[in-house]
């Protein structure tokens, strides 16, 4: 792989041979060669406008999902059944806020501001993951989210560590490590319930029944309806298609469900010797598109809570900005 300095020169030929206007064809060729060679694109490299726009769309929606995703689980912090469970859950919810911060920072390297992105979320112009529009009805839902939702997130996000855009790929490395702890805490919580009283076992089963299908929808529409997949895969932003990752997730979950002593709510789930994968039943895509359009069980509640939190946090942002300005002013005064 070329050094950062060499890459920068190759990909940012400022002028053509006659010293005229920037040569976009040369830029495009350098960009295509970098993608073909599996090199990383960095913020100061030239990139096609559509590549930049796709990254902003995906990273922003990913960031929004992380911070909206804090809500369903935060709902249980005050009612966690023990101090240990409460401490774990608080740490997990805080991690999600941190993931949002890494991702907004990665998006900002592409020339957008965090304010702009939050405005798009609050006005409904950018999406967040469908999964967070479902309610957390019982304590077992905290376990089901950890096991299934974080499990689906890891399956989707590990390949993003090899995404062609450097800042996104690097943010994903740390996020995946934390998601792995989240997934294990969910599994361990469900295992405790599954091995508990008959009522606890039933509560765990009910949570898995409700979260299974929405978790499969997290991977996005089927490949033949996925508007962006082909281009994003050609640019090596996405490394696998939505259906490939969904299948990988199903194959991982079936033996884990067996170890948990819980069943997955799909009568068509069956090992297919020929394919070397589990077959599974049809997904209700009408439900998916309805949730995305804003008609899921909790869309309104989630957005109202997000806007309220943003408004109530205005004084914190103002205080932080005033403190930063004072700090800069004092530093300059000391320099004389
Ligand atoms: N929900 O062409 P497609 C977490 C949209 S947070 C909503 O396949 P693409 C966690 C899609 O955006 C995990 N919308 O799109 C946090 C597009 O609409 P736009 C979040 C969806 O981008 C807290 C349209 O449908 N993970 O783990 O090629 C607590 C057509 O789709 C969904 C990420 O964000 C959906 N499920 O592929 C616990 C991962 N699926 O943008 C846990 C990063 C699709 O044209 N993102 N859409 O308006 C990705 O990997 C890809 O963006 C996706 C979609 C696979 C999600």
From TrEMBL:
GO terms for molecular function: phenylacetyl-CoA 1,2-epoxidase activity. One of its GO terms (cellular component) is cytosol. InterPro entries: Aromatic_CoA_ox/epox, Ferritin-like, Ferritin-like_SF, PaaA, PaaA_PaaC. Residues 13-25 have a biased composition (Basic and acidic residues). Residues 1-25 are annotated as: Disordered. One of its GO terms (biological process) is phenylacetate catabolic process. Pfam families: PaaA_PaaC (PF05138). This is Phenylacetate-CoA oxygenase subunit PaaA. It comes from Streptomyces echinoruber. The gene is paaA.
């Amino acid at each position: 792989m070329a050094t950062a300095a060499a890459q920068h020169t190759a990909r940012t030929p400022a002028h053509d041979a006659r010293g005229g206007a920037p040569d976009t064809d040369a830029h495009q060729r350098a960009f295509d060669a970098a993608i073909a060679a599996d090199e990383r694109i960095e913020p100061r490299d030239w990139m096609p406008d559509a590549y930049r726009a796709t990254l902003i769309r995906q990273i922003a929606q990913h960031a929004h999902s992380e911070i909206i995703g804090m809500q369903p689980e935060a709902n249980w912090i005050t009612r966690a059944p023990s101090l240990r469970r409460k401490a774990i859950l608080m740490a997990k919810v805080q991690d999600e806020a941190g993931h949002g911060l890494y991702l907004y920072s990665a998006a900002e390297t592409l020339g957008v501001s965090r304010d702009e992105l939050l405005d798009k979320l609050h006005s409904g112009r950018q999406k967040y993951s469908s999964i967070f529009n479902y309610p957390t009805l019982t304590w077992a839902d905290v376990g089901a989210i950890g096991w299934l939702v974080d499990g689906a997130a890891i399956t989707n996000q590990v390949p993003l560590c090899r995404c062609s855009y450097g800042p996104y790929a690097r943010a994903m490395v740390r996020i995946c490590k934390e998601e792995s702890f989240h997934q294990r805490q969910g599994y361990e919580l469900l295992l405790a319930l599954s091995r508990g009283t008959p009522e606890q076992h039933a509560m765990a089963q009910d949570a898995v029944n409700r979260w299974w299908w929405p978790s499969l929808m997290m991977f996005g529409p089927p490949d033949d309806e996925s508007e962006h997949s082909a281009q994003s895969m050609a640019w090596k932003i996405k490394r696998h298609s939505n259906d490939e990752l969904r299948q990988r997730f199903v194959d991982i979950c079936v033996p884990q469900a067996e170890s948990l002593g819980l069943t997955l709510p799909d009568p068509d789930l069956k090992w297919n010797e020929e394919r070397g994968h589990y077959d599974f039943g049809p997904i209700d895509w009408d439900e998916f598109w309805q949730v995305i359009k804003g008609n899921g069980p909790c869309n309104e509640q989630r957005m109202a809570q997000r806007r309220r939190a943003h408004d109530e946090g205005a004084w914190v942002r103002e205080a932080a900005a005033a403190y930063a300005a004072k700090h800069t002013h004092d530093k300059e005064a000391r320099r004389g």
